[in-house]
Specification:
The protein is an alpha+beta fold and 199 residues long. The chain contains ten helices and four strands. The longest helix is centred in the middle third of the chain and has 18 residues.
C-alpha cells in the first residue's frame, strides 16, 4: 500500500518539508522564524530558503511576535493572504448578485472589488467554479423557478429577475427554462479551500 500524503503539518519534519516545497496548503497552519534574520514568514515565502538549523516553527503569528521575531516584508505574514481577500471579494460579489433586482455588470463588480474585469473573472471562477455570467444566469434561473412555483405571473417574474424586457428574456430563454441546480450560496465558499489556489 502506498503512503498517504499528509496535510496536517503536525511534526517539524512535515512543516520543514512544506517550507521547502512552499506548499500552499500550509498557509495558515503555521509560521516559521529564522534566528539569523529575526523575521518570521509564511510557509510559502519566496525569500531565500534558510538553513534548517536556524528555523523554528510557530502555530500563530502572535506566538512568533512574542518570541521576538518581526514579520517578513516580502510575504507579510501578519496580513491576510491575497487569496483570502480575493475569496471574500467574490463572496461579496455573489451576495450582490443574489440580492440585486438589476443584475450588475462584471465591470461594476470588478470595480467594487478593486480588480480589472478579466482578473476578477478569473478569480471568480476559481472560487465558485462558474464564470460571473454563468453565476448570474444561475441566480436568475433560481429566482424564475421559485417565483413561477409560487404562482407569479410570467411578466412579473421576467422583470423581477433583472430583465429589462420580455424580449430580452425570450432571447436568452434556454438557461432560465431548463431545469438546473441552484447556484451555490456565497456562504458556501470556504476560505481554507479558496486560499490554496493562489498563495
Amino acid at each position: 500500500m502506498g503512503a498517504t500524503a499528509t496535510t496536517s503539518f503536525v511534526t517539524d519534519d512535515e512543516r520543514w518539508q512544506a517550507v521547502v516545497e512552499r506548499n500552499p496548503r500550509a498557509v495558515g497552519e503555521f509560521f516559521y522564524s529564522v534566528r539569523t534574520t529575526g523575521v518570521f514568514c509564511r510557509p510559502t515565502c519566496g525569500a531565500r530558503r534558510p538553513l534548517r538549523q536556524n528555523v523554528a516553527f510557530h502555530p500563530s503569528a502572535e506566538e512568533a511576535r512574542a518570541g521576538g521575531f518581526r514579520p517578513c516584508r516580502r510575504c507579510r505574514p501578519d496580513e491576510a493572504p491575497l487569496s483570502i481577500e480575493w475569496a471574500e471579494a467574490v463572496a461579496r460579489a455573489c451576495r450582490t448578485l443574489e440580492q440585486s433586482a438589476d443584475m450588475p455588470s462584471v465591470a461594476h463588480l470588478a470595480e467594487r472589488a478593486a480588480m480589472s474585469p478579466s482578473h476578477f473573472s478569473r478569480i471568480f471562477k476559481s472560487v465558485t467554479g462558474l464564470t460571473p455570467k454563468a453565476y448570474t444566469q444561475a441566480v436568475r434561473a433560481s429566482r424564475i423557478r421559485k417565483e413561477l412555483q409560487g404562482g407569479g405571473s410570467i411578466a412579473g417574474v421576467v422583470y423581477g429577475s433583472g430583465f429589462g424586457s420580455s424580449s430580452t428574456f425570450y432571447a436568452e430563454a434556454d438557461p432560465y427554462t431548463t431545469p438546473a441546480i441552484d447556484p451555490p450560496p456565497c456562504s458556501s465558499f470556504r476560505m481554507r479551500e479558496a486560499r490554496t489556489a493562489w498563495v
